[in-house]
Amino acid sequence: MADHTPDTAHAEDGQPTAARLRKLPTRLMSLAAIQSDRLVNEALARADARKWHYAVLATLGEFGAVSQAELSSRTGIYRSDMVAVVNELAERRLLERSPDPADRRRNVITITRQGRARLRRLDELLTAAEDAVFAPLTAPEREQLTRLLTRLVDHHGRPM
Q1: Greater confidence, 9 or 38?
Q2: 53: buried, middle or exposed (CB in 10 Å: 19+, 13-18, 0-12)?
Q3: How many CA within 13 A on the CB side of residue 119?
Q4: Which of 23, 36, 114, 119 could make an SS bond with 57 (beta carbons 3.0 to 4.6 A apart)?
Q5: How far apart are CA 81 and CA 103, in angstroms?
C-alpha cells in the first residue's frame, strides 16, 4: 500500500511528495537542517549576531585566549573569513586582539567581559531556538538525536 502522506516540509502547494523521498534519512536530515538553520539564523539576527560570532565567542569562552589561526581551526571558519569575524567582534569590544608574546607575527584573541555577557545572551537565544526546532521531541529523544548526529559527524571526519 502506497503512503500518500504529503511532505509537510513542502506542503504549501498541496502536492504530495513521493514516498521514497519522504523515507530517505539523508533528505530528511537536509530538510531538518534547513529549517533549523533558518530558525537559528533568525534568532541570532534579532540580536545582531551571526553563527560565526557565536562560534568564536563560545570557543574563546571555553578554551580561553588562542591564536587567530587556532581559533580558525577550532571553529572551522576559514582563516580569511576569521579576520572579518574577529574585526567585527573587536569593534563591538567583545574580544581583544594582541600580539602573541612568543611570536609577534601572530595575534592572540581573548574574550572580554562584554563578550562573556554577550555569549550568555546568545546562549539564551539559541536555547529558545533549539526548543522551537525540537519541540516535537521529548528530552530523551533530543538526547538520542544529539548522540546519533554526533556519531555521524565524528564518523565523517568533521571535528566538532
Answers
A1: 38
A2: buried
A3: 19
A4: 119
A5: 22
Residue 5 has pLDDT above 70, yes or no: no
Question: Does the CA dihedral 53-58-64-67 come out positive or negative?
Answer: negative
Question: What is the arithmetic mean of pLDDT over 82-94?
Answer: 96
Count how many domains the chain has: 1
| pLDDT tens-digit map of 26-76 | 999 999 999 999 999 999 999 999 999 999 999 999 999 999 999 999 999
DSSP assignment of 41-105, as one string?
Answer: HHHHHHTT--HHHHHHHHHHHHH-SEEHHHHHHHHT--HHHHHHHHHHHHHTTSEEEEEETTEEE
Cell representation of residue 130: 533549539
Q: Is the pLDDT of residue 3 over 60?
A: no
Whether the Cβ atoms of residue 118 and residue 57 lie closer than 8 Å to each other: yes
pTM: 0.82
Distance of CA 62 to the CA centre of its chain: 15
Please check whether residue 107 is in contact with residue 98, taking contact to mean a CB–CB distance below 8 angstroms.
yes
Domain that holds residue 137: 48-152
